[in-house]
Design brief:
The chain contains twelve helices and 15 strands. It has 357 residues and is an alpha/beta fold. α5 packs antiparallel against α12.
Length: 357
């Protein structure tokens, strides 16, 4: 029989159910053998749904007795550092959800420990594998816009408008929407434009809610080392109707401009939409730019999230990297680079100044 990678999952949230478990169980050489969560009931429900034999409420017990090769950490942000360091001490390959940690110091420790351990490590930045972002990356590499002058990325939604307690908006457990949606955008901007020199940030907390307040809107101005100007906006208090989540990317350069839209309401394949437009320096009209077939593969164009169960994307890509002993991107080092921007943005908002990254 072909080699099987034995995996443990930490976390029993809707995202573990909607993203990680479908992706892992779709890979013929991935074997999810254990689920761990602080509360046994949701872990047992997921284990029954996906045919997972072992359930734990203590991660160390799982590391000690489940005979794992790898672990996926899909727990709240304030648990990432301790869980990851324990997994690395156990010699496991590790996927950790974004944001990687609560501070850059923690994130860089995670990256350095993973490299010392010689294990595969990945920060789960979902948008690295979506068809529209991959197509944009290919167009940029082809020179479509030439030297990048400006990049605008926004990702807004309304899941924080009701004021209910959510750990993502608890300042003692997370960095708010800056760490949640904002980390995705910072990673995309860094992927497209390169590393950053400095940041100026304004963070808003518009909706009153229980717990220590964290930002529910974040606006960042970033200066790339290339000189490109980057604007990032993430919000959890924007009403966008049936679109659910609304992402827009615009990239302007000396040779042309690219624009992309992406909307989706859930992971069921209904309501998704994406479009890419471009105009070269010698053209007057934008033209629609189709996403190439080699990016789609067998994925239904109406269900771009299908890449995670049919393509080497996300968890499936990580399993392939373990089996083939290949490097992984985005790694913990990429996650730590994003965390350094988040730290600088928090300091910028506090001081009202540009802060070096």
């Amino acid at each position: 029989m072909s080699k099987q990678v034995r995996i443990g999952l930490i976390g029993a949230s809707w995202y573990a159910d909607g993203m990680h478990l479908p992706s892992l169980t779709s890979h013929p050489q991935a074997n999810v053998v254990a689920i761990c969560a602080r509360r046994r009931e949701p872990a047992e429900a997921l284990a029954q749904k996906y045919g997972v034999a072992q359930v734990y409420t203590d991660h160390q017990a799982m590391f000690d007795s489940a005979n794992l090769d790898a672990v996926v950490i899909a727990a709240p942000d304030d648990q990432h550092f301790a869980l990851t360091m324990a997994a690395l001490d156990a010699g496991l390959h590790v996927i950790c959800e974004k944001e990687l940690a609560l501070t850059a110091e923690q994130a860089w420790q995670m990256a350095e420990r993973a490299e010392q351990a010689g294990v595969k490590n990945m920060t789960f930045f979902t948008f690295r594998w979506l068809p529209h972002t991959l197509a944009l990356a290919e167009l940029l590499r082809s020179g479509y816009v030439g030297r990048i002058y400006h990049c605008h990325i926004s990702y807004v939604a309304g899941m924080g408008r009701d004021g209910a307690y959510k750990w993502r908006f608890d300042g003692e457990r997370s960095n708010g929407i800056l760490g949640d949606l904002g980390s995705h955008l910072i990673d995309l901007a860094r992927w497209y434009c390169g590393d950053f020199r400095r940041v100026s940030a304004n963070l808003g907390a518009f909706v009153e809610r229980p717990g220590a307040p964290a930002n529910d809107s974040a606006m960042l101005l970033l200066e790339a080392q290339s000189g490109a100007q980057v604007h990032v906006h993430a919000s959890a208090v924007a009403h966008v109707g049936k679109e659910g989540l609304q992402q827009r990317i615009s990239i302007y350069g000396d040779e042309g401009t690219l624009e992309a839209d992406f909307f989706f309401g859930n992971f069921s394949g209904s309501g998704e939409m994406q479009a890419i437009r471009g105009v070269r320096h010698d053209q007057r009209q934008f033209e629609a730019l189709p996403i190439p077939d080699h990016i789609w593969g067998e994925v239904d164009h109406a269900d771009p999230m299908g890449v995670f169960t049919k393509q080497p994307a996300g968890d499936r890509y990580f399993i392939d990297a373990i089996l083939a002993d290949q490097p992984v991107t985005p790694s913990f080092r990429d996650g730590a680079a994003v965390q350094s921007v988040i730290d600088a943005a928090l300091e910028s908002h506090r001081t009202g100044r540009w802060v070096a990254v």
